[in-house]
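tool_call: predict_structure(chain=1)
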Amino acid sequence: MSHSVNTNDAQIKMYTTQWCPDCWRAKSVMRSQEVAFEEIDIGDDEEAGALVQRLNNGNMSVPTIVFPDGDVLTEPSTTALMTKLSALSQ
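tool_result:
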């Protein structure tokens, strides 16, 4: 699932939970590509959880990754995430 949201912050934000294997994979991809990101655990941040729900039609889907250009990737495959990261570096 991919869509856009307006954001003024230049940093990538990844909304996660501690127990989510897809989150672990996405963080591993980001780190392997040396991409800086802010991790926000929606289990610890009620406002972040509400944002994730708004971005995902009421679902608490993680990881939800918000990019500086306003794009949002929800539960992206490794390929989709790598494609987006590649586009950012161009």
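agent: The mean pLDDT is 90. Proceeding to next step.
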